[in-house]
Amino acid sequence: MAIKRRDFLKLVAGATLPWPLADCSSRNISRMNLQSSWEPRLETWVPTVCGACPGNCGLLVRKIDNRVVKVEGNPLHPSNRGKICGRGQAGVQLLYNPTRIKAPLLKVGGRRAGKWREISWEEALSIVASKLTELRNSGKAHSVVYLGPEGHQVADELISRFLRVYGSPNDIRIDLWKALKQAYSLTLGSSDLMAFDFENCKYILSFSSQFLTNWPTSVEIQRIYGEKRSKAELKIVQVEPRFSLCASRADRWVPIRPGKEGLLALGIASVILKEQLYDKNYLDRFAARFEDWFNEQGEKIPGFKTTALNLIRLEDVSEETAVPLKTIIEIAREFASTRPALALADYNLSYHPQGVFNSLCVLALNALIGNIDLPGGIARPRPAPLRPWLTENLDAIAEKGLRMPRVDEEAKDWLMPPLDNPPYEIDCLLISPQPLPGNFPFLENWEEISQKIPLIISFQPYLDERNEHVDLILPDTTYFEKWQLATSPSLSMKTMVSVGMPVVKPLYQSRPLEDILISLAKKIGGLMAANFPWENHQEVIIDRLAGLFEAERGAVFLSSQEEFQLKILEERGWWLSQHKNLDDFIADLFKSGGWHDPVYHFQIRSNTYQNPQRRFIFFSASENLIKQTEPQASESDYPFQLFLYDLPFTSNNSGAPMPFFQETLGFRFNSEWRIWVEINPETAKELKIKENDLVWVESPYGKVMAVAKLFPGLEPWLLAIPLNKETAFPANKESRKISDPLALLPNSGSIQKNFSVRQNLRVRIYKEKGGTS
Amino acid sequence: MSRWGMVIDLDKCTGCQACVVACKVENNVPFSTPESESSRRSISWMVVLTITEGTYPNIRQRFIPRPCMHCENPPCVKVCPVGATYKNKEGIVAQIYTRCIGCRYCTNNCPYTLKYFNYSRPRWPTEMENYLNPDVSRRGVGVVEKCTFCHHRLQKAKEIARAEGRTLREEDYIPACVQTCPTGALIFGDLENPKSQVFLLSRSPRAFRLLEELGTEPKVFYLTEGERHA
Amino acid sequence: MLKNAENILNYEEDIFRPIIKTGKKFYLVVAALAAVSFLGLYAWLTQLKHGLGVTGLNRPVYWGFYITNFVFFIGISHAGTLISAILRLTRAEWRRAITRSAEVITVLVLFFGVFSIITDLGRPDRLLFIFKHGKLRSPLLWDVVSISLYLTCSSVYLYLPLIPDIALMRDRFKGTFRGHIYRFLSLGWKGSERQWLLLEKAISIMAVSVIPIAVSVHTVVSYVFAMTIQPMWHSTIFGPYFVAGAIFSGIAALIVAMVVIRRSCHLENYLKLIHFNNLGLLLLVMSLIWFYFTFTENLTSFYGAEPSHLAVFYSKFSGDYSPYFWLMFICCFVIPVTILSNKKTRTIAGTFIAAVSVLLGMWLERFTIVLPTLVNPRLPYERGIYNPTWVEFAITAGSVSFFILSYMLFVKTFPIISIWEVKEGYTKGVEETTTRVKSYLPEK
């Protein structure tokens, strides 16, 4: 037996042995193997792209025969280098999930009470195609709305193409980062997210930014954090109201009143200005409106420096932000004297009405010390040289449709589509396969909104109560079951393309969204079909990848040593082709997991500064901006301020289908499936609330039952509740009913407003009678 | 003979939970449920413990990943009446699930409280049985289980090395938690090999072990957090 | 002489009466106990089907009622053999009427101790692995060895003095089905000189050997805890502490049994006030000793102030387990000492109350030894919580009921008072005591 086994291993490299009853005891193993009839199992490792979040990390998937049993990070992937987060690890539960939809589902017997009926793809596609054709022919192409999260996969581009060719301007992406993007657009002329060069920076001043846990690039940042920590090369200062995971890992936590980050940044800026610690050279060459300037009418407008120095009194800042004066000055000096230093802003600043202002202030800090377009600073990612899409041929209907205003055109705020009050009726809503951010307040009045829309089609692969108002589901597959092409996530400096082949065949009757779109276009026919000439999306991907082969730079993923060599050569203007032909290249590409170019050229002015001035444009702080809105409800009725925050790795969605992931989220509070509220121990003592007591937290709009957790990581007048914590698997309406913190937000009125008062809500707290758990 | 051990750099641990999830997937540990939580019977071989110190605003929090310590003098092994838990030649403290009678003496004598008992039969939704690792047996009701340093990976690495006609290299064997740790806070290797990273780090002045005073001689070493947190 | 013979006949009549006559009350009690026992059986079957998940055990509270019951039952087993052996060896003449009822407790309750361990196993189907794969370095194996030895010895020790009485029964029930069994069990006892000689020799050998075994049993039971490295389990005092506690609860159990037998079998003439007085004094002494041990044990932990020990200490002293701890203190010390130190209250009723209170208190003592250590793990986990379920209550109640039931059946089958020993008291005891007392005194 033993010889046979060895022979087998020699034959199949990387094969594993079956130990169906294996114990850890080697004695037992040998005995059991003799007894059981063992059949060799084939173990294979397949590289692909992780789709558990928008991070697009490289994966190596362990397959036994035709099953996926484990994922590991792809060691060659330049971003995650063999590492992967807990969410990624739990990805196997996305693939093999009991709530997966097995075939296209059609609602029969009315939307609310209706039942699902499985239908064939042929039927499903016909229904959608005929409806879309009908709308298109009746001049209502623009009333088809797609709603989904931001993404960097081929599917996202196919959707945009589909909508444009079809004639709908309503390619709506929910984007939590919009405030920061807007700030970039105002300062650097492009709303693309810039990358932060963590690898080379020495000091991080983070304003409520969850860079270690909630960014698409967090795995990469964690890797760099680990490397730098061992050499004590990085100092982190975390400014935020609550002692988050990031704060706990920082060298210093500076508690601040919610929403006052911008003001503190201005305070720090004013110290830097007063003490002349700013980078004069940079400001002269690359900045505008720092000093006083003249507008077109020739009027003198005070610049950033003047306004900051005149308007900002440090004592006021200290009082408003609750940050001691000494701390502000200390941080300012440290920040300006440790180069390179980064001031971080992220989507968390959006959770306040002053999000754009706060983001602008933080960006201004970076500009003050000249840390833009430098190693260790803010830099613009370079796109990968993928072959461009075939030019779209638009017909008259499409052109007419695209000229229509978007449904979210009217939105004065920068956040979300006012689907509850669109400028014209929405006739068909398409919902993305990825869940919408679970913390997204528009789901609160989902019911109301959905009633006004005659047809709602979803591509979601899982059945949960959020599909209640959907008429038709065309189930997408998971990322394990499709061809993938993903470019670098936002915030990454790496120029890379990650690719993956299907690791397993689509389970059940699910189909990749990309293929669904291509089939739909073909079904609709005419110019639509002509614009989608590919057989399937594998063809799309191969076609686009050819661009990389032709680019004559970069290489397929390499080990870090090889990458280093490539970088040295390329920086000296050398590039050697590794592949004879495109087929070779593509084969290698899929074997290694992707393509990347390790060289980044700093100081290409036109790349970084995309505004006409080619400069960083400071804003002028006005008194209006500095004055911030206060929470509305009366203080006596609702004595506490509530801080709702995203749990680690849940900024895009809660990951509800992954119980392995969900159960770990409450580890700091010993809570696997219960929702909790964090209370300062002093407050708790006053209210006679003990650890693990059941309490109600009530706002003027609703209430939530939670378990009390005493936590000294917030001010005594602040309460904190996590978002995205599921309380059961599979998550269901019942489990979400009393434990959904979104119930605390105002349910009517403007969605945008609701969203931004997230950290600005007043509540009261009281014990559930007889409630301890 | 190798002596496998782990070094955990607390300076680097971000409490991200990747190790915890990786362990559960690798070792066929069922996910917790609201019921298992309220009855306090959830199983997780790897756990990140949180220690919170101080009052607002001078608060400090430490995260301590806690696998099995694989003690040189394992208190659990001593007390097992049937030898279902034992220390093998390479120092790994292992479990024989098919022999365990479920007396839970070992769980009670583990000063780290890191052994788990299957109060009920572990269950998965049928679909999720697909991802179960064939290298690791599914435990039945009534037996004790705990971290094995992914011992099955060592078994496999040895088989492959033997098939390839070479000796086992240190890097051939790495537990799932260490493999995935994004910050590199978990380091694994042979404590007998003077060239290995764990050998050097375990002798660092920062190195300590949990409940060292009990003389259990764990093979999991921790590196204290640096001065920066003082 | 003739008067004596008449008396002896009367003893037999008195002592045989419960075996021959059965009242209505008996059946009622049997029915009630059987009902509770069946409930326990049902609970146990439920547990066998679903595993220990049906209990309130969890992590880190891996042990609860069952282990408490185990220690408690094994403790009670000391009633018998140890007391009767000591009394026999010291030739305490007042022992004659009580030895048997004590020895029966021992033998019967041991089974329930073993049963408690089986109920506690996660895999009772693998029970025999203890023999197949037994590892002697585990204190549990020491338990297996010493308990089986103890069970054997105490059964023999119960059986030997029973033989002459069985012979009497054999003669009385000649020809009936019962008689055949008695004949088989009497091992051909004829009461010859040689047989008496052999019997007495065997009894004294057993009496000598059963004492160290009994002491070892409870020491080893304490080792299950003491050999661990857990706070307030890992204690050098545990061996003697447990032995003292065992004798303490054993005496209490014996008193309760005697009071019940005395009333229900109308043996007032045999189990007299003096017996209860003497046992009451013994109980009083044990209560003081118990207090001494408990005091030492807790003061050491408190004064040493090792954090992990303190956590356990406070959880008993003022925390979650303080109600149990203080109730135990009242039951084991306050009540018995108050009642028993006063001659006026040291009546049959008084000793009975004290004994019942001690039994309850000693169960709580085991409970407060097992639980507080487990709920306070050393590493920063959440504190444990233990809420026993109906299954655990039912199995506990069932065990106790079934124990009482078996005891009653024994009383119905065999003479609960050793006839020949009482007889011997007259024939030999009186004379021997006189000689002995005389031998203490200076020669005239």
Structure description:
The complex is a heterotrimer of chains A (773), B (230) and C (444). In chain A, a hairpin with a 2-residue loop joins strand 2 (58-64) and strand 3. Chain A is α/β, with parallel strands linked by helices. Helix content of chain A is 32%, strand content 18%. Chain A is built from 28 helices and 30 strands. In chain A, strands 5-4-19-18-17-6-7 form a 7-stranded mixed β-sheet. A 6-stranded mixed barrel of chain A has the order 25-29-26-28-27-30. In chain A, strands 11-10-9-15 form a 4-stranded parallel β-sheet. Chain A is globular. The radius of gyration of chain B is 18 Å and the shape is globular. With 230 residues, chain B is an alpha+beta fold. Chain B is built from 7 helices and 10 strands. The model of chain B has no long low-confidence stretch (mean pLDDT 92). In chain C, 75% of the residues lie in helices and 0% in strands. Chain C is globular. Chain C starts with a helix and ends with a helix. The interface between A and B is large, with 91 and 77 residues.
* Structure summary, number of beta strands of chain C: 0
From the spread of the alpha carbons, the general shape of chain B counts as globular
Radius of gyration of chain B: 18 Å
- Which pair of protein chains has the largest interface, and what are the residue counts? A-B, 91 and 77 residues
Query: Strand-and-helix sequence of chain B, N→C?
Result: EHHEEHEEHEEHHEHEE
Mean pLDDT of chain B: 92
Radius of gyration of chain C: 23 Å
Runs of chain C in which pLDDT lies below 50 for 5 or more consecutive residues are none
Q: For the largest beta sheet of chain B, what order do the strands appear in spatially?
A: 8-1-10-9
Rounded mean pLDDT score of chain C: 90
Helix content of chain B: 10-25%
Largest sheet of chain B: 4 strands, mixed
SS summary, helix count of chain C = 17
Seen as an oligomer or otherwise, the chain set is heterotrimer
